[in-house]
Amino acid sequence: MNNSGEEIISCENLVKIYKTNDIEVLALQGLDLTIMEGELTAIIGNSGSGKSTFLNMLGGLDRPTAGRLVVCGKDLLKLTESQLEKYKLETVGFVWQNNARNLIPYLTALENIELPMILSKRSQRKDHALEILELMGMSHRKNNKLHQLSGGEQQRIAIGIALANNPKLLLADEPTGSVDSRTADKILDIFREINKNLGITIVIVTHDRQLSRKVERVIAIRDGRTSSEFIKMKSYTEEFANLKGEIGGDGKRDEQVELAVVDRAGRLQIPKEYLEAIGVLGKGKVRVELENDKITIYSPEN
Ligand SMILES: Nc1ncnc2c1ncn2[C@@H]1O[C@H](COP(=O)(O)OP(=O)(O)OP(=O)(O)O)[C@@H](O)[C@H]1O
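The joint structure predicted for all components is written out below.
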């Protein structure tokens, strides 16, 4: 991760309501989060919590209903249709779980990677596509079509397609959802390399707890709101050295610390289990005390 200190995604009180016939579904209900340029972030949450909805908003595939969503300086609630088309083609790259959606089956791997460049009228497309294939370790598969590639190879090409127009932000929806764990590890390695070497900000939506343990920042969404965050405390270099016994390993397995989210209005969401543990869940009130640099939360009965 090479976080440059610039905000690339700023999301405040984001709301998305889907209307089907007479039914309204509140898919995002005031989501707040900020992602800095150069971060590699995983978004986790139960089925139906709003992960894909948020990724679709980030990708410009669907419009938010209300709130604020600014990506790379572009206000996604205000872009015109043609600005949104350009944004989808040039500012973000999208990798889907389903490769039939990522790759056009009757085109070769090389042609698939060239396609986004054709759509945005770039020159020197073939050279750039060949460079990307090399970066993905897929030069030897350039003339293969979808059905001639393994699941892992298809995902590499899908990432290559997403990188074709040099996006600042790469979005991936369950990229390891349909491959075995060894392939999933390799795909995650590619994301890490792209993040580190090209400095591209990456947001991955995943159910895969194994994958989310391997990234430095994890944002948990519950019921369309940010519920908590996990930050990795050790760098990969340190962790790798630890594994190889090169630096004193402390034997600690849990390298991610959980952070509760405080929104811009100062509202704090405390994990439900914590409230349960001190017997205040559903009570509506807690005792809060400030003591030097600590805030302590008690049950009012204590
Ligand atoms: N196009 C749509 N029309 C109506 N409701 C939708 C639409 N897309 C999503 N929803 C609803 O919005 C809520 C959030 O869905 P979303 O797909 O974002 O969740 P998710 O966390 O990605 O779930 P999963 O992990 O199962 O993919 C769900 O209740 C879902 O049924």
